[in-house]
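ok so heres the complex, two chains, lmk if somethin looks off
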Amino acid sequence: MSAATSPAPPLWLLAELTYRCPLQCPYCSNPVDFAHIKEELSTEQWLQVLQQGRAMGAAQLGFSGGEPLVRQDLEILVAEGRQLGYYTNLITSGMGLSRERIASLKQAGLDHIQLSFQDSDADINNYLAGSRKAFANKLEMAAAVKEFDYPMVVNFVLHRMNIDHIESILDLCVELGADYVELANTQYYGWAFHNRQQLLPTREQLQHAEAVTNAYRERLQERMKIYFVVPDYFEERPKPCMNGWGSIFLTIAPDGRALPCHSARVLPLDFPNVKTVPLQEIWYDSPGFNHFRGDEWMQEPCRSCPEKKKDFGGCRCQAYMLTGDASQADPVCSKSPHHHRVADVVAAAQETDPEVQPLLFRNPDNSRRLAVCGEDESPQDCGHR
Amino acid sequence: MMNPQLIPTLNRHFRLQWEPVQDAYVLLYPEGMVKLNHSAAEILRACDGERTIAEISTELQQRYPEVEDIDNDIDEFFEGATRNGWTRCECRD
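and the predicted structre for the whole thing:
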């Protein structure tokens, strides 16, 4: 990176308050070794992070996790965030939410709630979430979110097991009065990476879901905005991940590690901790954040690619997870010499029976088991043990 | 063409805010942000839930007499803003 291109300020601050969560979704984006990261920033430390981020120019503030409602100081953090001028977003599973808490968050100034579901079918929802109460609880909380006049984003993570329910999923969203719907096809990081075989849909499933989504968009227009996040494994060109490394997004992990995205923890880079380094210095001066800014780091085929300013070579984490080298082109790209690593998995999904291997649920036991992967062992070889 | 007698209001879930670091007004909404250019910001700031599109046009024309065809610009702006869900237009009771 040259001095002439000083990075723009972060506009989005994602506060991952905790890795604790009552649910066990097998596509969770949290690191698989979360069980070993027990430390959490204190209320006071979070307040300082919010103040520093706002002073730097961040305007959107997301509270996520884990399940952010596990933190009993959430209301204090929301109130501070709102008072500082952030637009405050709560990204929640709805577990731990109650009418009382929705009311107190409203009073604290929370601007918006994003509520996630696992499926429109109660049994599958509860199976994936690992909780028999989850679905009923979510329905009740969705009604309360509307009652307290929050804008509501309803999020469904789509995969092989629920993608064919797309019509009933969208019907449910209409019924709940969602203002926005996020149909987020699973991205294969964290836990989802270990469950790729079971979660990857077939091409036909995907095309059907997209066609149904477009028909609902046509019918509902502005009444309910529907975002369909395409799964990049099916693309020929990579996504412009995070709109460029260290360009807009700043994530703070529960233990205070500052990251350019919530999955960057997997990379063999040194990311500073907000407990010891000011946010300003982390964003502008730390080697971790500067590592993949600009295009000096690129290898071929990215270096001479006419599209490098459009997609920034794709996702660094995906390049690392699939090739062992984070400066490779994202193998989603058909120009990548490693593209077959994606194409083979997609092809296998067309044929395999997803029931062959059981899902690996996201819970502390499995996390401790997976962390057995050695430092020098590439994650794709680690698999189920 | 929008009815100039409609009263535009900002979507109640959106927030219009001055951001010193960006040196611009921005529109904030669930998980999103739009940086506004000068004219878009001026129009949205005039949406007070009282004035009609016609009244907003007249006021902005007085403030910016050099702008030609301001009615048309404002009409186009509200068409787009309504389509994007930024504003809602209602009749006077």
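quick notes: DSSP finds three helices and five strands in chain B. thats all i got rn
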